[in-house]
Design goal:
It is built from 14 helices and 13 strands. By secondary structure, the chain is an alpha/beta fold. The model has no long low-confidence stretch (mean pLDDT 97). The structure holds pyridoxal-5'-phosphate. The site of pyridoxal-5'-phosphate has 14 residues, from helix 3 and helix 4.
């Protein structure tokens, strides 16, 4: 069986976890957490990085941080994971879904302005497959209308847009270190990147159960008290230790994935038209988070998945557009015409891509796809 994903493993994880255990300091914000956060801050150039238990939690923290209130509107694509929307629905927001671009499957930036009303509080661009949204256009619109931008960069760790790391361009960025993403902190994990320095101290308070404990630990105050609403948004040191091992090997993982991605692209280009293959716009570098392609129809897509499964290769689809799911219809609505979201999502498949996938498995996947199309 060729699996769709295997959690990345670089080899040092166990050693780091043993060190964390030996240090007798296992709760959040210990030395391993601080090292991961400094790594993110210096490599990606953000004012403040804070580890979180997941990207879902980072998005929830972001929604509290920008003060989303009942009745506020938040703009995002419908073609995304549920957490992008849930975080804001939890605070009482109404979700306004905007169609995607047919080339990158990212939110169509030219449709955002039409979706803005007096109630619009935030835009949440999702960098699908680690390929950046048009952040210049999105930041221009947001600044003109005084709206927050929270990047869902769950899939975008190590990608850039015009030389800037994804997650560092909006006011806030959210990363995922789930085992299905490029870097993992032992199964579940994430980070929030605070790019607007005015938001940093409140972010630290919300993340520490609404207390100013982090100011206390830094010696800025002599006792800590309840300051604001908050929750527990800290992962344990065991997770941070696992993550640090992966970050140490970030370049190696990234180039391995890009190599696999390019092999798929070159192999499929021989028999698939460009419009069925992913597009990577100029001015950005992607991180090969995902290799997807399109089939002619939903029927052909399902037939392809069954064919690959018969050959013991897992090629799952995703996402069911949020606006057509029961909760999505309840908590949000689609603005404008759904030209691409539903049709493209019904034609898409993803190929096995993970750090360490063998050359022989890759050849088998490519051979099997070729035999499907050329039979
Ligand atoms: C994976 C993912 C999430 C959620 O990440 P978790 O770390 O599992 O909470 C959110 N948004 C997008 C676009 C994702 O791909």
């Amino acid at each position: 069986m060729i699996h769709f994903n295997r959690p990345p493993k670089v080899g040092n994880e166990f050693d780091y976890i043993q060190k964390a255990i030996a240090s007798d300091k296992l709760c959040g914000d210990g030395p391993f957490s601080k090292k991961c956060e400094s790594w993110i801050e210096s490599n990606f150039k953000t004012k403040k990085a804070l580890l979180t238990p997941s990207c879902t939690a980072a998005l929830e923290l972001a929604a509290i941080l920008v003060d989303i209130q009942k009745g506020d509107e938040v703009i995002m694509p419908s073609y995304t994971f549920v957490s992008t929307a849930n975080a804001f629905v939890l605070r009482g927001a109404k979700i306004v879904f905007v169609d995607i671009r047919p080339d990158t499957l990212n939110i169509n930036e030219s449709l955002i302005e039409k979706a803005i009303t007096k109630k619009t509080k935030a835009i949440v661009p999702v960098h699908y497959a680690g390929v950046s949204c048009d952040m210049e256009k999105i930041m221009d619109i947001a600044n003109q209308h005084n709206i927050w931008v929270i990047e869902d960069a769950a899939q975008g760790v190590m990608s850039t847009y015009k030389g800037k790391a994804l997650g560092t361009i909006g006011h806030i960025g959210c990363f995922s270190f789930h085992e299905t993403k490029n870097y993992s902190s032992g199964g579940e994990g994430g980070a929030i990147l605070i790019n607007d320095s005015d938001l940093i101290s409140r972010a630290e308070i919300i993340r520490e159960k609404g207390t100013n404990r982090s100011q206390f630990l830094n010696g800025q105050v002599d006792k800590y008290t309840w300051q604001d609403v908050g929750s527990s948004f800290l992962p344990s040191e065991l997770q941070a230790a696992y993550l640090l091992a992966q970050l140490d090997s970030a370049e190696e993982i990234n180039s391995f994935r890009l190599d696999v991605w390019n092999k798929y692209f070159n192999s499929l280009s021989k028999f698939l038209n460009k419009s069925f293959l992913p597009t990577i716009p100029e001015d950005l570098e992607h991180n090969a988070h995902m290799f997807y392609f399109l089939l002619k129809s939903n029927t052909q897509r399902d037939e392809f998945i069954s064919y690959m499964k018969e050959h013991k290769i897992m090629t799952p689809f995703h996402y069911v557009p949020l606006h057509s799911s029961p909760a999505g219809a309840n908590f949000g609505s689609f603005c404008g015409e759904d030209l691409f979201t539903t049709s493209i999502s019904s034609r898409l498949v993803r190929l096995p891509l993970y750090y360490g996938i063998s050359d022989s498995d890759l050849k088998r996947v490519c051979g099997c796809i070729e035999s499907y199309f050329c039979k």
